[in-house]
């Protein structure tokens, strides 16, 4: 199952991240995971929220450049080598990862990794077949 992630183009200037998060807060959007990749002039804010379509509408209404991207969310046991097993499986199956970032949940003993890759749906199926926990959109958005 794939999750919808917001990708927001942001200028690298003081207060810009605050503006974006304030728009989300005013729209009643709850952030589940967040990552920023930046250069000296701009960045890409990647955000998983509980209501992705509403978040896109709110951000666009405020003149922000935003798009939805499909990613997968993989549950990883909190023990040495667990993440390595998932990454090795994906590599051995020929999946090409573009980027990833992680977050922890309220569930003890679990961390979750957001992964963007070629053919994410197939990657999720392969991981699930090998015993990895793949979060559904509903599960993640309601965490």
In short:
The protein has 143 residues and is α+β, with helices and mostly antiparallel strands.
Description:
With 143 residues, this protein is of the alpha+beta class. It folds into two domains: 3-67, VC0802-like, CATH 3.30.2130.10; 70-141, VC0802-like, CATH 3.30.2130. 33% of the residues lie in helices and 38% in strands. It is built from five helices and seven strands; from the N terminus they run βαββαβαββαβα. Strands 1, 2, 3, 4, 5, 6 and 7 form a seven-stranded antiparallel beta sheet that branches. The longest helix is centred in the first third of the chain and has 11 residues, at 16-26. 24% of the residues are buried. The model has no long low-confidence stretch (mean pLDDT 90). This is ACT domain-containing protein. Residues 5-79 form the ACT domain.
Q: Helix/strand-derived class?
A: alpha+beta
Largest sheet: 7 strands, antiparallel
CATH fold type of the largest domain? VC0802-like
Global outline: globular
Instruction: Return the CATH class of the largest domain.
Output: Alpha Beta
Distance between the ends: 16 Å
User: In DSSP terms, counting alpha (H) and pi (I) runs of 4 or more, how many helices?
Assistant: 5
List keywords for this structure.
single chain, 143 residues, alpha+beta, VC0802-like, 2 domains, seven-stranded antiparallel β-sheet, 5 helices, 7 strands, 33% helix, globular
Topology of this structure?
Layout: E1 3-11, H1 16-26, E2 31-38, E3 42-49, H2 52-61, E4 66-77, H3 82-92, E5 97-104, E6 110-117, H4 120-129, E7 133-134, H5 137-141
Antiparallel strand pairs: 1-3, 1-4, 2-3, 4-6, 4-7, 5-6
Domain ACT: 5-79
Organism: Neglectibacter timonensis
Protein name: ACT domain-containing protein
